[in-house]
Amino acid sequence: MEISALQKARYEYAPKLPGMLRHGIADICVKEGEETQSVADQEKIKALFPNTYGKKEITFQKGANTSVAKKQVVGVILSGGQAPGGHNVICGLYDALKATNPENVLYGFKNGPSGLIEDDYLVFDDEYINAYRNTGGFDIIGSGRTKLETQEQFAIAAEVCKKHGITAIVIIGGDDSNTNAAVLAEYFAANNTGVQVIGCPKTIDGDLKNEDIECSFGFDTAAKTYSEVIGNIERDANSAKKYWHFIKVMGRSASHVALECALETQPNICLISEEVAAKKMSLSQIADYIADSVAKRAAKGMNFGVAIIPEGVVEFVPEFSALIAEINELLAGSKADAFNALPTWKEKYAFIENGLSKESMAVFAILPEGIQQQLFLERDPHGNVQVSLIESEKLFSALVADKLAERKAAGTYNGKFNALHHFFGYEGRCAFPSNFDSDYCYSLGYNAFMLIQYGYNGYLSKVSNLSKPAAEWVAGGMPITKMMNMERRHGEDKPVIRKALVELDGKPFKYFEAHREEWSENTCYVYPGAIQYYGPAEVCDITTKTLALEKGE
Amino acid sequence: MEISALQKARYEYAPKLPGMLRHGIADICVKEGEETQSVADQEKIKALFPNTYGKKEITFQKGANTSVAKKQVVGVILSGGQAPGGHNVICGLYDALKATNPENVLYGFKNGPSGLIEDDYLVFDDEYINAYRNTGGFDIIGSGRTKLETQEQFAIAAEVCKKHGITAIVIIGGDDSNTNAAVLAEYFAANNTGVQVIGCPKTIDGDLKNEDIECSFGFDTAAKTYSEVIGNIERDANSAKKYWHFIKVMGRSASHVALECALETQPNICLISEEVAAKKMSLSQIADYIADSVAKRAAKGMNFGVAIIPEGVVEFVPEFSALIAEINELLAGSKADAFNALPTWKEKYAFIENGLSKESMAVFAILPEGIQQQLFLERDPHGNVQVSLIESEKLFSALVADKLAERKAAGTYNGKFNALHHFFGYEGRCAFPSNFDSDYCYSLGYNAFMLIQYGYNGYLSKVSNLSKPAAEWVAGGMPITKMMNMERRHGEDKPVIRKALVELDGKPFKYFEAHREEWSENTCYVYPGAIQYYGPAEVCDITTKTLALEKGE
């Protein structure tokens, strides 16, 4: 197998552990903290998790290892979308497991949670593990999106564990996967299976974050990879001086990625979905906001710029969500047949005009025709509009062009506006993890094994103090139930980990808010360049701006 | 001004010069080689360049500097599209100029060749130059696409030079810009202006290359930046195992970038425009070629893959070019009015069916409707189809989907095919130059000044032996006329630098050809990762695969 020069070099990288885990397995002891309670709905969560609720937060520290000597057979699962560093979680887990007892065994269930249910697995050994150290991707065992949430699935999982003598399962996933990990942990405890469950916080979206989890892994590398190419595009814009680049970045429900990229690259515009929702902004208002920047810069002779658009932003525009709901209603069930039977777009348009409320028709009317057609022609198997297919970067540049045409007619704008479009998502999810993510993930995995070894169940592997050098990181565990509250999901009240949206009174957004006016009118671009794995520490070991600001650095 | 940690660190990087230029200005002497002649059409080229034709190739070597002591006032111009390293050409030029005589002056003409004509310039000093060392972009003075080619422009250029006492102009550009540099050099010589002209070979496309110029600058960094994100996407594909990614990369007339990216990342498919043209491939054949890979992989359970598409490939498909020509004819002049007056696409389609030849209609009929409409609705100011707007990555994935549907109906394919699309171009043109491009460009600029100092005119700054460490590089100059031949351009015979297309019997293509069948069926992805500027030499100082193969490494 041919591998790149960088991959070969990265095999040699020794990830940095938190200082307290560096003395060797024999010298890691547990310090128990306070009993915990969930962030909200304590009584309801407690009732749902009678065996795993209210446990103590723990941290590890230097001291004689007092865990029970017992052969451990651990199964690990990668759940959901790829995030840089996933391989290192498994490597850290493997190294701690083997260092504790060479007889210990690590199973990898293939292609996500379905691997556990289907008993599809491999057994790791040194040779296999070594080919994945400090690499990106989830190809070590594959990932998948099957959810482990039903009693039937849990019963099968228990059987599979029993068959292999599995003592613990580690689930590497986002908020939903860790919610399910907590439910599985409770099931295993309630049924006296003796199997423990430990979660690890993964997602490039950065929305698995709370007072215990400072950041999910992968966010650092993915945001830096997007910022690299956004910075390159900014420099191109500032060299050619003739294009406005509309750049969509991943993040359907939260705008952490967009915000982090903006903090790193200082573009002229960055939309934040949470702000759009809070201010109940209309498409027209957003377009005007961007057009203001285009016009001000044009007046200074700068007919170029860069705008960052979070993937999910249109879903946060109240009038647009209302329109989508009306379209779904308009074409529900057999009503779609009448619409589909109309031979031309003109007739279809008349049907739409007749069917939508006046307010929604006004929103529909300002959309570019391509997007109008997409809303009606490309629907999912349930007949619903596929909002995720909407190319919002093209939508906003088209709306801005309309606004500028109006201003030109009114004599208030006399520039040139040529737009180019980009979407960055898949480019960053499998990058080689930054040194930060390499270290953090390895530590999460190593730490996860210590939690197993000390008998904890339903805990999230927790490594904190992350804005400091790794030597000062704090390793421990937190009951997952502590992060939960009750939310309405698909018509039912469910115990879930609260998803972290961008806080409009948080320091990262406040910093952005304080600077964005200057950035919108002037050219204040910052070019982060490619992630560096070697060289000066101030280049290689910087954390995200988001984390630095949140921790007051 | 806020700058990134990497930019700050890169300021400190000292570019490596060829060994022969390392002893200081006082120790650089000239070794003259043979007189040269153009690669073809010698008599015609000689007649067009009576003052600059047939000059000797030269190399520099260690020895007493015998150049005439004379105050030099040099003007530099960035021409055409951005390429990483342009700033370092100017830095190298500046450093050699100032090291020779602190009284020497360097002018930078702004926003491309038009800056010379409009006398729009700045004068470089240490502080200004230092802010651009080892950085990407052309923002140091901006670039532009104005061509210097008329006698009127040359006369103005001569006046501007006279006004400032300019002794030489350095033009940093691609094949066209260097062709124009040669013509300007001849003009200056014929009119006894005393102004010299030196060219520097720039283009990320890699098509300014010949037996003298081993590669144009910027190709290394740009191709590596695209390969970084292509590798990341490959790893994502191999982790999620559910998408085929169709990735378009820049390169309208030559496929060097696509080929280099393929050599670096080993995707399942890479189209090479030159091969498509040589084999006179049809759209259907290309689609079948890709569909074969999809089907073979699906049969092995791999419903994912990566295909690289060079930007200009459709223009190399003979039947497609014929179709475009017919459409341009069909809508020429007032004929477009009749077409535009038709109210529906259905009626327009009938008009098209009636107007195209049977062969072209057959090609038109297999195109996805979106592209059909684009060909007729989005035309340039002359009424011509805008081929560059065609999203060929989407075109081919749609054609492949059609082929697979046929195969599914025939029972010869039973996989899943979900396509995602990407286009990489602007992402790489302004990246921080790799160590190779940093060194090469600085050397080109330094060397350009030595050519000026020794009185050469109409020369290209030439640095060769590039697959070896910089200490072994060879610095010198080559008359631009040596690289010229006569070609038909816009209905006239013109002396031009021959554009280097991918040679189908060259080593890079041969290597690709020998491996592509295996790559198309199996998963042989290589993940190059981000460009590294520090760390192990085998990671930081590797050249392109193209150069290594061409030089037999």
Automatic annotation (TrEMBL), chains A, B:
Entry GO terms, CC: cytosol
Domain Phosphofructokinase: 74-315
GO biological process terms, semicolon-separated: fructose 6-phosphate metabolic process; response to glucose
Family: Belongs to the phosphofructokinase type A (PFKA) family. PPi-dependent PFK group II subfamily. Clade 'Long' sub-subfamily.
Pfam family, one: PFK
Free-text function comment from the UniProt entry: Catalyzes the phosphorylation of D-fructose 6-phosphate, the first committing step of glycolysis. Uses inorganic phosphate (PPi) as phosphoryl donor instead of ATP like common ATP-dependent phosphofructokinases (ATP-PFKs), which renders the reaction reversible, and can thus function both in glycolysis and gluconeogenesis. Consistently, PPi-PFK can replace the enzymes of both the forward (ATP-PFK) and reverse (fructose-bisphosphatase (FBPase)) reactions.
Organism: Gallintestinimicrobium propionicum
EC numbers on record: 2.7.1.90
Assembly and interaction partners: Homodimer.
Domain of life: Bacteria
Keyword RNA-binding: no
Subcellular location: Cytoplasm
Protein name in the entry: Pyrophosphate--fructose 6-phosphate 1-phosphotransferase
Chief location bin: cytoplasm
Enzyme class: transferase
Activity modulation comment: Non-allosteric.
Sites where the protein binds substrate: 203-205, 242-243, 250-252, 311, 426-429
The keyword Cytoplasm is assigned to this record: yes
Cofactor: Mg(2+)
Pathway: Carbohydrate degradation; glycolysis; D-glyceraldehyde 3-phosphate and glycerone phosphate from D-glucose: step 3/4
